[in-house]
Each structure stands twice: as structure tokens, then as C-alpha cells.
């Protein structure tokens, strides 16, 4: 599949609104930087799991500094410019100090679909994938898989049918997802209308233990450190910035002896006094759960472990004090 901005005129004008039309889109720092082995990440239907599993450590480390972030199926994107069959977009749902409009990056044009009037109304309930991944099906019986999507993918609910929800996709019509795979959100918040408590965030995080780290990762197929913490809070409808350095500047500062489950912990160069380079989530009992680096997987580890003991630079809390 090939697309060219020149073939479609006004469709690809700056400011045009699109949605992500692939399970997980990877946003690059520059267009056409991908290697042959990155094909699964730039295809029309991406397979991030297969891509990540096929890479050696050296090949994963090559990605550092070349990838920006990822965006999920159905997520909104605003076009800034095109270059050949690549588009530079911003992702409004991922706050960053780099651009007040959202997170910037390049992706292939064929991973975008023009934003259209949703089949469901704007105030329709939403189904949010709560498992590492889940399949959407062509049929309510779940016999014909359509697409595997990631944790945190959000789709409007058109109808409730027994053990499944009928959901509206970006450009593929109505599909079906098992209720057991989603959090049902009615209106502006989760079904119970209450903010989460820290233990809920930690419980949700635990399902990803053992998942390999992926630079710029923002999906249930692989996270980087701040993508992991951002995604956990986003799942519960709490907006925080995409990157660790920005996350460290919002919320409320927390003393180390007053940590609660769900607080974010920050680590910095120069024994904690330099620039922020890592973030994890406090899990209780003097431990954190985090996505460490390209050589390792998501783990739960003591705050006394090296190098974190010496690089600790503070903690922030984003949950209400009343809970």
C-alpha cells in the first residue's frame, strides 16, 4: 500500500484532522529512518509484538533517540506537514512541553484515516481495553477476529450485546469486543464515577510484569519508562505529560517517607541532582514497578537497589488527597 500527499490534495493540508488507523503507530523523529527490520512497525497493520521480539539488544538500542512516541488505534492526530508518503503529526492526547498542541512525530500516511463523524454520539459510553491486548471481532460471537489492539485503546460503544460491546472503529465500521477485556466508561469518567486509588494503579501495572521494555513504547506490546506511567494514569482518565521530565513538574511533591502506592518516583543523573532520566511508580513496601531499559523487562524492585538508591530525585502525587 502506498499513499502520496500530492495525490490527495486538500486531504493532507496542514491542520487536517486524522485518526490512527493501525493497532499501534510508531512516531519517528524523521521520516524514512526505518530499517528493513522495522517493517512490522511501519506497515498498514502493525505488529509491534513481533517487531520487538525479533530485535536483538543492539537493534533495540539503535532506536534510542530516533523514535518519539506511539499512538493507538483511534487516537486523534493533527497533520503538520508531509514529505513523500510520510506525515508529521501532533497527538493532542499526549501533553508535552515540546509543543503545547501535543506530541510531535512522523509516521507513514497509510497509518492515518481522515477523522469523520462518529457513528456513536460524542457523549456515548466508551470501552477502554484493560488487558495487555484484546481482539476486536467481526461478529458478536467472537469467531472471526478482525484486529488485535493494545491496552488503553478507546472506542465508542454503540450497543451492549450480552457478553460483548459493539464498538465504533475509526474507519472499519462496527466491531465487537468482549466485556471482560474492557473498562466501561459512561460519560466523563469510569463507571463508578470515582477517581482511582493508588492500589488500583499498581494492580493494573502488575499485569505488565515481564513485558520487555521498548524505547518510545506506549502500548501493551512494550513500554518505555514514562510511557508506562503515562498510560496507567491515562487509563483512569487522569491526564499527565508523556515524558518523565514533564511528569516531574506537575502534581504535588511528596516526601520519601510519605510515599503512597501510585506516586511517581523520579531519578536523575549526577546522583539525583542532574536532569531527570527515569520514572517509576511506587508499589508499596519500599518498592517500585517500572520499565527499566532496553536490556530488561517491566519489574518490581526495591528503591534501595542500585543505581536507583543514589539517583532518587523526588516523587509526585496526582491523585486526590481525599482517597
From TrEMBL:
One of its GO terms (molecular function) is cysteine-type peptidase activity. It holds the Pfam family SH3_YKFC_2nd. Residues 195-319 form the NlpC/P60 domain. GO terms for biological process: proteolysis. Keywords: Hydrolase, Protease, Thiol protease. Belongs to the peptidase C40 family. This is NlpC/P60 family protein. It comes from Paenibacillus ginsengarvi.
Amino acid at each position: 500500500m502506498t499513499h502520496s500527499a500530492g495525490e490527495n490534495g486538500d486531504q493532507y493540508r496542514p491542520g487536517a484532522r486524522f485518526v490512527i488507523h493501525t493497532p499501534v503507530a510508531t512516531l519517528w523523529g524523521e521520516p524514512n529512518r526505518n530499517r528493513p527490520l522495522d517493517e512490522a512497525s511501519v506497515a498498514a497493520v502493525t505488529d509491534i509484538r513481533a517487531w520487538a521480539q525479533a530485535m536483538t539488544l543492539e537493534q533495540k538500542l539503535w532506536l534510542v533517540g530516533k523514535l518519539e512516541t506511539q499512538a493507538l488505534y483511534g487516537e486523534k492526530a493533527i497533520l503538520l506537514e508531509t514529505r513523500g508518503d510520510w506525515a508529521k503529526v501532533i497527538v493532542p492526547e499526549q501533553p508535552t512541553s515540546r509543543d503545547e498542541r501535543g506530541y510531535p512525530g512522523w509516521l507513514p500516511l497509510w497509518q492515518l484515516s481522515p477523522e469523520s463523524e462518529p457513528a456513536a454520539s460524542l457523549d456515548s459510553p466508551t470501552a477502554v481495553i484493560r488487558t495487555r491486548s484484546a481482539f476486536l471481532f467481526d461478529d458478536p460471537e467472537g469467531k472471526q477476529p478482525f484486529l488485535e489492539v493494545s491496552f488503553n485503546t478507546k472506542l465508542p460503544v454503540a450497543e451492549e450485546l450480552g457478553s460483548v460491546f459493539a464498538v465504533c472503529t475509526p474507519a472499519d465500521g462496527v466491531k465487537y469486543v468482549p466485556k471482560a477485556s474492557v473498562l466501561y466508561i459512561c460519560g466523563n469518567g469510569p463507571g463508578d464515577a470515582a477517581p482511582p486509588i493508588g492500589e488500583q494503579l499498581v494492580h493494573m501495572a502488575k499485569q505488565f510484569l515481564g513485558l520487555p521494555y521498548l524505547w518510545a513504547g506506549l502500548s501493551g506490546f512494550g513500554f518505555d519508562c514514562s510511557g508506562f506511567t503515562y498510560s496507567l494514569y491515562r487509563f483512569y482518565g487522569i491526564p499527565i505529560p508523556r515524558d518523565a521530565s514533564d511528569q516531574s513538574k506537575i502534581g504535588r511533591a511528596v516526601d520519601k517517607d510519605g510515599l503512597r502506592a501510585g506516586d511517581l518516583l523520579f531519578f536523575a543523573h549526577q546522583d539525583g541532582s542532574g536532569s531527570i532520566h527515569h520514572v517509576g511508580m511506587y508499589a508499596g513496601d519500599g518498592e517500585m514497578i517500572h520499565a527499566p531499559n532496553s536490556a530488561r523487562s517491566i519489574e518490581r524492585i526495591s528503591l534501595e537497589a542500585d543505581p536507583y538508591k543514589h539517583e532518587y530525585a523526588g516523587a509526585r502525587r496526582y491523585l486526590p488527597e481525599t482517597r
